[in-house]
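Support request from a user on the community tier.

User writes: "When I paste my structure tokens into the form, the page sometimes reloads and wipes my input. The last time it worked, I copied everything first. Here is what I submitted, just in case something in the input itself triggers the reload:"
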């Protein structure tokens, strides 16, 4: 039975297309200012204190890779897109329970595990749309201004970013089955992802507190290292995939024992 998967996939299509459009508009804006900024980027980077550079992931701003990593990925992708995945996932189960749709769904010959799995699997829509549309827009934009961004590094930013986004979605999924109301689950997921990102960013400033960042998903995804230094942390991606699998198992256990 894949009716739930098809329905959830259609439901996510519109927001996914809108997100790609937003990134296209942002890309056009940033590419338009890069040629003028590139000449002063080294002086601008030197003007920032080291702690600020670490916090925002600023490196090699005079290159197109460093500029895009800082302006597009370090905030919009790592935080806002992550929040989107957590928010969407947090509303899946809780929203259906609150609206009583889940009663109708479970009256059919379908297990709770299947319902949860299909709702999680529907995330393929935004994953595919964002991880194909955004790199295409960025590559075309770089060529349009006479720059050449490494297509392999650009592709790997998105390939290795999938496990990170899945973990954020997993956080939302757990909250969706743990909390009573969809709004509470979505707000909690938004706050959780933001706080985890903030903790990891702050932990980079002081070496004494660096260990705190190891419990945050963003510690295992460094977009700047991938784009600027071509360092592909496959082990970190595997850690994130394992964390996502664990979160799905926790969500399934909570959902099976939940009184609906």
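"...and here is what came back when it finally went through:"
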């Amino acid at each position: 039975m894949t009716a739930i998967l098809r329905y959830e996939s259609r439901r996510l299509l519109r927001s996914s297309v809108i997100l790609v459009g937003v990134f296209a508009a942002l890309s056009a804006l940033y590419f338009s200012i890069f040629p003028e900024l590139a000449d002063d980027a080294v002086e601008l980077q030197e003007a920032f204190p080291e702690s600020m550079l670490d916090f925002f992931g600023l490196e090699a701003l005079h290159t197109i890779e460093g500029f895009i990593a800082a302006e597009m990925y370090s905030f919009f992708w790592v935080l806002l897109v992550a929040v989107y995945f957590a928010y969407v996932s947090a509303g899946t189960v809780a929203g259906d329970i609150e609206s009583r749709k889940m009663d109708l769904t479970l009256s059919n010959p379908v297990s709770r595990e299947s319902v949860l799995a299909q709702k999680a699997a529907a995330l393929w829509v935004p994953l595919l749309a964002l991880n194909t549309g955004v790199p295409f827009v960025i590559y075309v934009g770089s060529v349009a201004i006479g720059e050449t961004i490494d297509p392999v590094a650009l592709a790997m930013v998105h390939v290795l970013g999938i496990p990170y986004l899945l973990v954020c979605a997993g956080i939302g999924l757990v909250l969706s089955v743990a909390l009573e109301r969809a709004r509470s689950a979505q707000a909690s997921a938004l706050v959780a992802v933001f706080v985890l990102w903030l903790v990891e960013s702050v932990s980079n400033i002081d070496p004494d507190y660096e260990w705190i960042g190891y419990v945050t998903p963003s510690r295992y995804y460094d977009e700047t290292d991938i784009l600027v230094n071509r360092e592909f942390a496959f082990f970190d991606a595997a850690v994130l995939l394992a964390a996502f699998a664990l979160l799905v198992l926790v969500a399934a256990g909570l959902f099976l024992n939940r009184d609906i």
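Agent notes: The reload is a front-end session timeout and is unrelated to the input. The mean pLDDT is 86. The CA atoms of residues 16 and 72 lie 17 Å apart. Escalated to web team.
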